Amino acid sequence: MIVPLVEDLAHVTSVATACALLGRSRASHYRAAREAQRRAGVVFGPEPAPVRAPRPTPPNALTDPERARVLKVLTGPRFADKAVAQIWAMLLDEGTYLCSMSTMHRLLRENQLSGERRRQATHPPRKKPELLATGPGWIWSWDITKLRSPVRGVYYDLYVVIDIYSRYIITWRVAAREDAKIARTMLDDAMKVHGIPEAIHADRGTSMTSKPVSHLLLDLGVERSHSRPHVSNDNPYSESAFKTLKYAPVFPETFGSLQDARVFCEDFFAYYNHEHRHSGIGLHTPASVHHGTATEVRAQRQHTLDAAYTTHPERFTRNRPQAPKLPTAAWINQPSQEALIQTA
């Protein structure tokens, strides 16, 4: 009964006033009206936007010749690369007032000339590093991380070189500072023992891009590869090894001394290479994959699983158990399938 009353009262006042006086929600009233129109077959939709009359030209607006003059000054050789505020102030110092700064900005916008007027530095996009290792000894990755010392704000530097295929820690150093000479010596000694890889990947730290390291790799014919700036995912193997190190339950909050840090790293990397089962290499140890014994280990694992299946086949409801497969390749930024097809 209240709906007709709202309609009747709305003819005298307004819908808003009628709904307020009768205690009815305006939304409910309009919804009911639309539903009634729909049932009656009346097509309705959003009301068309009101046509606004063109804004009259203000009496103090610039004339067309004045606008053309201002635009000519703004785009002339003298001011083409200067900001509007600079132009306005320079003209004012010379005793010339053309218009306000906001009018200058408006003229530039209307002529698609707004934006940065100075010459801007352009940086070509960095090439994404794409490296493939199909066996140990092909690609190395190295990085430096900080170890907290007992002195607040003082850190030791841990240098680590890892084989990306086997995840084997090739070599490491703990030093009191980051130094390119230390990095060069570390890489040189590692290549004398483990052979020369095809490429060595690192980020863009000062030691990684230093002349001593660059000259060493050039002399030995090793390809240099670097991560893009601020892209940690370009060096995933070193970052993963550092996370395994620092998230280990035995990793201390601080090291008592430089010698203390070296002793800890010696024990940890021995464990990492020879005992830690790495999920990225079929749960084998990095040393097993690096030195070529992982195939025999996997065969022994499969033999044990086959025996378990033969003894209790009912416990394996889906398929025969299979030992985790060995890796066939390790990529830094693997290209998409489409890119691989195009380059094939």
Write the layout of secondary structure elements.
Blueprint: H1 2-12, H2 15-22, H3 26-39, H4 64-75, H5 84-93, H6 101-110, E1 131-133, E2 139-148, E3 155-163, E4 169-175, H7 180-194, E5 199-202, H8 211-220, E6 223-226, H9 236-246, H10 258-274, H11 286-290, H12 294-311, E7 330-332, H13 337-343
Parallel strand pairs: 2-5, 5-6
Antiparallel strand pairs: 1-7, 2-3, 3-4
Helix pairs in contact: 1-2, 7-8
Highlighted features:
alpha/beta, Nucleotidyltransferase, domain 5, 4 domains, five-stranded mixed beta sheet, 43% helix, flat, RNaseH_sf
Order of helices and strands: HHHHHHEEEEHEHEHHHHEH
In CATH, the topology of the largest domain is named Nucleotidyltransferase, domain 5
What is the number of helices?
A: 13
How many separate domains make up the residues?
4
CATH level-4 homologous superfamily of the largest domain: Ribonuclease H-like superfamily/Ribonuclease H
Structural class: alpha/beta
Task: Provide the helix percentage.
Answer: 40-55%
The largest sheet, given as strand count, sense and whether it forms a barrel, is:
5 strands, mixed
Radius of gyration: 37 Å
Query: Would you tell me the overall average pLDDT?
Result: 89
Beta percentage is 5-15%
* Low-pLDDT runs: none
Using DSSP, what is the number of strands? Answer: 7
Using the coordinates above, name the CATH class of the largest domain: Alpha Beta
- CATH level-two architecture of the largest domain: 2-Layer Sandwich
Q: Determine the N-to-C terminus distance.
A: 79 Å
GO molecular function: nucleic acid binding
Organism: Arthrobacter echini
InterPro entries: Integrase_cat-core, RNaseH-like_sf, RNaseH_sf, Transpos_IS3, Transposase_IS3/IS150/IS904
Pfam families: rve
